Amino acid sequence: MSGDAAALWPRVAEGLRRDLGVRTFDHWLKPVRFADYCTLSGVVTLETASRFSANWINERFGDRLELAWRHHLPSVRSVLVRAGNATAERGAVMAATPPLPTFEPPAAPAAPSPFDAKLGFDRFIVARSNILAANAARRMAMEEAPQFNPLYLCSGTGQGKTHLLHAIAQAYAAAHPTANIILMSAEKFMLEFVGALRGGDMMAFKARLRAADLLLLDDLQFVIGKKPTQEELLHTIDDLMCAGKRLVVTADRPPAMLDGVEARLLSRLSGGLVADIEAPEDDLRERIIRQRLAAMPMVEVPDDVVAYLVKHFTRNIRELEGALNKLLAYAALTGARIDLMLAEDRLAENVRSARPRITIDEIQRAVCAHYKLDKSEMASKRRVRAIARPRQVAMYLAKELTPRSYPEIGRRFGGRDHSTVIHAVRTVEALRVADGELDAEIAAIRRSLNS
Length: 451
Prior knowledge:
Structural class: alpha/beta
CATH superfamily of the largest domain: P-loop containing nucleotide triphosphate hydrolases
Number of strands: 8
CATH topology of the largest domain: Rossmann fold
Number of domains: 4
CATH class of the largest domain: Alpha Beta
Number of helices: 20
Distance between the termini: 78 Å
CATH architecture of the largest domain: 3-Layer(aba) Sandwich
Order of helices and strands: HHEEHEHHEHEHHEHEHEHHHHHHHHHH
């Protein structure tokens, strides 16, 4: 039976390597070898090079080793790591023979970090729009326990949420070199959960996440409507919080606006600190451009071109940097001199697509202004035609001009059911074909919104 257990060790080790991460596994568990398995006591004995390593592994990874072994061999009751006998035997031989010259093999190259070195705190520019999120992120990475846990960062796309996740991970790793840090998207969490469920590997999946000292989840909105995934995420969060571990989550909206997410999960996520990152102000956008250009002293970008970028790319940082990259690339590949005329010519399409998105609130205001209604009527229960038709027009435009779902739109119109919104959209679509006057009214409202 010991031989059978020995044959399982490579599989157990590979699972641990996947769950703990390459860096942690290679540093502590890669040198470990199988020694024995006692079928009577159910004890697996492993060996490593030194007593210090053995004590550290027993203390730090003992539970993980037992869980991993039981997954492959249910009869295992415990796992013991001890210092191997090879050191003592080698010492005895060395005492009986003259010392030989020693050769120190070169150190193995360190495993590459899973975190983007370019996304550190040193390159995150702080301004009024993001100061709360930036300071909270720094606190989360400190050695001492954070004041608020979990930390929930929310903003639209391209505002720096993912940058802060990588910055937290790198700073925390520097302060806690042996910490187990997991950074993953919520979508990856969902895919791994489903894969583990189908593959009968849930024990390893659970163990891996619950062993994290710091768990960072990006883009939580991807689990909207995925109830089994939410349930597992809830249990993971509860276990981490009870164990005093740290959790950071990002999403494109506050917890209260995550439609289709279980109330218990929203409660856990709201229990720490919710930090908004607002759209970048003019000063921040200019400082970001100046920072990029400072790293390229051979590139000359006139002040009026910088001002053009700051003026037209207001929605998020990613669009701003994308426009700058496009301009720099064109100049580098064609030899063109960067000036305002070149920027206006090459970035015209980017400027059009970067215009601020229309919100449901703006649509409701525009419709009410056109039909001379009070905005409260958009959420009222009144069904008279003079109110119901404009309300349907507003629902139709909300579906046409925003990325919001039918249930989201319904909630913004007095908590109406999604089927009501669908009916309104189909009704207005049909009326636009049959009623030229209504079609003209909707066109006029759209023009007012676009202007």
